[in-house]
Amino acid sequence: MKIALVAPPYPLEEAPSPPLGICYVAAVCEEAGAEVRIFDYIVRHYTPEKLKKELDSFNPDIIGSTSVTMNFPAAADIIRTAKRLNPSLITMMGGPHVSFDIDNTLNRYPEIDLIVVGESEITLKELIPVIKNKSSWTDIKGIAFRKDNGIFKTESRGLMKDIEKVTLPARHLLPMSRYHALGFPVSIITSRGCPNKCIFCLGRKMVGMKVRYRSPESVLDEIEHILSYGFTRINIADDFFTANKKRVRLICEEILKRNIDFTWSAFARVDSVDVPTLELMKKAGCDTVSFGIESGNQEMLKRVKKGITLEQARRAFKACNDVGMVAHASFMIGLPGETEQTLKDSTDFAEELGIDYSYHFLAPFPGTTIREEKENYDIEFLTDDWNRYDANKPIVNTSCLSAEDMESFAAFFEKEHEKNWENVKERYKKGECTDFETLLVEGYPRMGFIYKVLSSDLIEDNGFYKVNSSSDQVVELSKRVAEAADLEKGFVTKILKSLSESGYLKFNRNEDMIEWFWTHNNRMDVFRSTERR
């Protein structure tokens, strides 16, 4: 059996890293005996024509995808196109969006045959061997599909009790060299679950209230596996990594015991960190901790059931400062009851803390308390266009603030942020930046260019040409890419040369023709001329 899994497009603003969810799915499918291929359209440009070529080349029996709300339309469109190209394909989707929007998804997208609801590992393990026999679907817990002109939902699947048994993500199926080039860290999950009740979050409903832990040994084995690909930075993407300080200490001690050299970051809550824990995390390579503060107004925090106090936030950020840990805070715009004053409170509080911070707009995703119980809150949803649910544009009104008001506030914040950024760049020119600021100034243009190269197929479209024996092939490629991207040749050459020297880009020579290609990862190259349009 052949299974194609789709990683749908994801914007640069969301810091796309190797997709974890689809790799967990791929691992289960491989374990079930299937031949699996991931069609990655995060770091590869998607077109229906490219999809057709890949389907024709692989000829899968099943195609599936997982997505969050913001890229659900793209994922569903790819599945729809695949079904139209090959009506015999069995199509399935999973992930948080479809798990909480089953009826709408199956009614609006007849090309989607079934939905895997919630955690997928056990469900897929049972489903894959019998998936071609649709009469057996009713016996599989945790799925939904059409039956007898209606939507049939099987018995719900409980959460896995022991996540230690979960097969490690099949990252070997991803074009890891492209992710290397882009430069974002690789994510890892060390636990599942969140006991908190924030009304805007899906975490508790998707992975349960009780936190389930992997052993420190298992976590470090996976980290070493990731590092074997050549990555040097990891992001611990747990909903609540610091839920158990003793376990955090055990993981840090295991890192130190194995003498592994890498840097990492994690998400935490302000009521769950202290100086001893942060000191050990830093010693073990952690350099950044991100906190969701959401609001600088205590009444707002109570209203959204955040379960923290501003004083706890002050103590947490002081602790980070005391140990020399970079701390980042995120705030929300558009929470129920939001006013001009509460937004000012957030800005004032962030400035008081003297930390790096950012704003995101509230996005009431399917399954969140605020969406399911909106009549209980001061909130009006303006759209169900899932493309707009990226937290970068306002899509709600409150009784005191319109979406336009929120947009104006964000624009002012961005203007101030841009002023600060211009100051940093001026200090960079004078050689007065910190190491971290220097990294940002030099890294942003590079990252933006590489993302453009990846998402626009600039190598595939410009890397096939007749050889000029007198020229350096990197220089020749750079000239072509620079012209296509309307960028300065020296800037492009410097970056493409580094990608070539790192082994992410290589070329084949066939008589008098050169063809450049992205390598797959540092263990093997996969060259397919079908990459060219």
The percent of residues in helical segments reads 40-55%
The average pLDDT value, as a whole number, equals 93
Reading off the top of the CATH hierarchy, the class of the largest domain is best stated as Alpha Beta
Rounded to the nearest angstrom, the distance between the terminal CA atoms is 28 Å
Shape field: globular
Radius of gyration: 24 Å
Could you say what the CATH topology of the largest domain is called? pyruvate-formate lyase- activating enzyme
Description:
The strands form five sheets. Strands 2-1-3-4-5-6-7 form a seven-stranded mixed sheet, with helices on both faces. A six-stranded parallel sheet has the order 8-11-12-13-14-15. Strands 18-20-19 form a three-stranded antiparallel sheet. The chain is α/β, with parallel strands linked by helices and 533 residues long. It has helices spanning 20-31, 48-58, 72-85, 96-99, 102-108, 121-127, 176-182, 203-207, 216-227, 245-258, 275-283, 298-303, 310-323, 340-353, 369-372, 403-429, 435-455, 458-462, 473-485, 489-501; strands spanning 2-7, 35-40, 62-66, 90-94, 114-116, 143-147, 150-153, 186-188, 191-192, 212-213, 233-236, 263-268, 286-294, 326-333, 356-361, 380-381, 396-397, 464-466, 505-510, 513-518. A hairpin with a 2-residue loop joins strand 6 and strand 7. Helix 2 packs across helix 3 and helix 10 packs parallel to helix 11 (275-283).
